Amino acid sequence: MEEKEWFSTWFDSPYYHILYAKRDENEAAKFIASLQQKLNLADGSRVLDAACGKGRHAITLSQLGFTVDAFDLSPANIEAAQVFECPDLLFFVHDIREALPLQNEYDAIFNFFTSFGYFDNRMDNQKAFDTFAGGLKKGGILVLDFFNPTYVLANLVSSETVERQGISFQIKRWSDAGYLYKSIDFTDKGTTYSFVEKVELVTKNDFLAYAAQAGLQLVDFKGSYSLTSFDEINSPRMIFIWSKN
Description:
By secondary structure, the chain is α/β, with parallel strands linked by helices. The chain contains eight helices and eleven strands. A hairpin with a 2-residue loop joins strand 6 (about 160-165) and strand 7.
């Protein structure tokens, strides 16, 4: 039997959501609002949240007045998100490497908060960009948000213990062969669990090459959720804004 990719099991686990439950919702909402001020998308624009998790950012986009489609690889995530569906907000299960059901339909596609770089085969990165480009209208916008590898490696916390809902998550981080790893070990109700996250250290130039191959042109590049200018050493994020040629 073919072994499942790590993200298809860990992201579908309830423990993933327990560990990351304290992610800053206000920061995310402010980031999306700042993006809209910059992009100035028309009310009712059709947008896509690619790799949406449980839909928190898609919901924010919907509240801003957009018609929103959102997908995730995790059936459990989509089932949870579908509670929030309405006529202008639709969730579905999909793999970012596969062509979208709607082609040339989206005014903007968003890939938020490091929802990229999970694949063993780097050719899959190009497939994902081809997916994005295929879904966009001519002149449509792709926004991709990823960590800055230089900053992350310089500020890496090698080990820590995180307490969530009575569970002690033992976390270790390291880099090897172009990937960033995080091991997560814990025991709950007498059962021991072990997961490993693996994210490629995709560089700025890598992203630019994937986008260019997919027919996307860079129109802006920022370094934080407050949309400050990018600095290779000090910026925690790489926030790309491309337009479809």
